[in-house]
Amino acid sequence: MIRFFTRFVATYGYDSPKEFFLSVAPSFKYNLQFPAISFSAVTAVVSEWIGITPFLAMAMLIAIVSEMWTGIRASKVQGIGFESFRFSRCIIKLCIWLTIIYITHSFYLESKAGAEESFVMLLATLFFSIVKVFVMTWFCVEHVTSILENLAVIDGKPKDALIKQVGILWVTVTDKFRRKADETEG
C-alpha cells in the first residue's frame, strides 16, 4: 500500500510521501504546526460560539488586518505617529460588531430551539439566520470603506476620493439594471 501511494504521489512530482504531506500542510515544513492548529481550533470555537461561518471569519480577519495596516500607513503619510488611542478605537469598533453578531446569533439559537414546535419560531430562525449573515457582510463592507479611505490618503488624495468612485460605480450599475427592467416592462 505504501509503495502504491509513493508511486502515486511520484506521478505528481513528489519524491516521497513526506514531501507530498509537507506540500499539503506546509506549516510542518517551517515548524509552525502548533500556531496553525491553534489558530484553526480557536477559529472553530469562536465560529461555533458567535456563529460566524469560517469564510466570513476569514473575510473579517482580513478586513481588520487590512484596515489596521492601511491605517498605520495612512497615518505615516499624514505625519501622525502610532497612537494607542487610535488603535483602541479599532478594538472598540471590533468589540461592538462582535457583540452585535453574538446577540443576533443568540436570537438565532433561541428561535431555532423552538422552531420544531412553532411556525413563528421557524420564521424567526430564518430571519435571524439572514440577519446574522447580513451583519457579518455589513461588517466587511464597512471595513472595506475604511480601507478605501486609508488607501486614498496613502495615495495623497482626499479621504473620500475612492469612496466617490465606488458611488459612481454603484449608480452606473443600478442604472443599467433599471434600464434593463424598463426595457422588459415596456
From TrEMBL:
One of its GO terms (cellular component) is membrane. It is found in: Membrane. Keywords: Membrane, Transmembrane, Transmembrane helix. It comes from the Bacteria. Its main location: membrane. The chain crosses the membrane at residues 49-69, 90-108, 120-141. This is Phage holin family protein. It is a multi-pass membrane protein.
